Amino acid sequence: MNYNIDLKELSIRELEKTGWLPFDKRANSNVGVRDIDIFLFRDCMDEMKLVQPLIPVEDYFSDKEQIAEFIPPLCVKNSLNGELCLRNFADKT
Prior knowledge:
By secondary structure, this protein is α+β, with helices and mostly antiparallel strands. Helices cover 23% and strands 14% of the residues.
């Protein structure tokens, strides 16, 4: 048995079991796709060498398309009205 788990890690594991999500994985209902500056987003994607010529930049503003393999989609679909909201890690504030 591994006793090297600290209290913080244990509490986060318990919260995740109950459906609680960490801040960077939660949806921010105050910010939507309409708040994204497409030109700035395209420029940042180009600078990070993540632009794929076959995929339009607007396709990344969905709850299914990922920018890279280990990055979750930028948006989450709001369960109440079906509107796309940005995740907190993508918040512009």
